[in-house]
């Protein structure tokens, strides 16, 4: 089992969700986050005053899936979320040692 953590631009969320659903992803967790990477923030003008925005709004997706499906999930996220502009995001893939469905007690792959 793998845990895929992806940060993407917020306006790409629905498009990415639809693409993942189409390949068989049955669930994900979504969190609104702020962060910075290569773009390290930017400046904006508000009511005539310029100020620095050090953290950029992003969306974090967390998807648990079977190891065999991980490459397809990553490829779907990357191709769907890409705008070819700075700040498109990152994808990380981690191993899951154990999973338990709280309601039924099912474990590991059955819990997904």
Structural summary, described in words:
With 112 residues, this protein is an alpha+beta fold. It has one domain (2-111): Alpha-Beta Plaits (2-Layer Sandwich). The protein is 20% helix and 37% strand. The protein has two helices and six strands; from the N terminus they run E-H-E-E-E-E-H-E. The chain has helices at residues 13-22, 70-81, and strands at 2-8, 29-35, 42-46, 49-53, 56-65, 89-95. The strands form two sheets. The chain has a four-stranded antiparallel β-sheet, covered by helices on one side. A two-stranded antiparallel sheet has the order 3-4. A hairpin with a 2-residue loop joins strand 3 (42-46) and strand 4 (49-53).
Can you tell me the number of structural domains?
Answer: 1
Fraction of residues in helices? 10-25%
User: Any idea what the shape is?
Assistant: elongated
The first-to-last residue Cα distance is 9 Å
Oligomer class: single chain
Structural class, by secondary structure, is alpha+beta
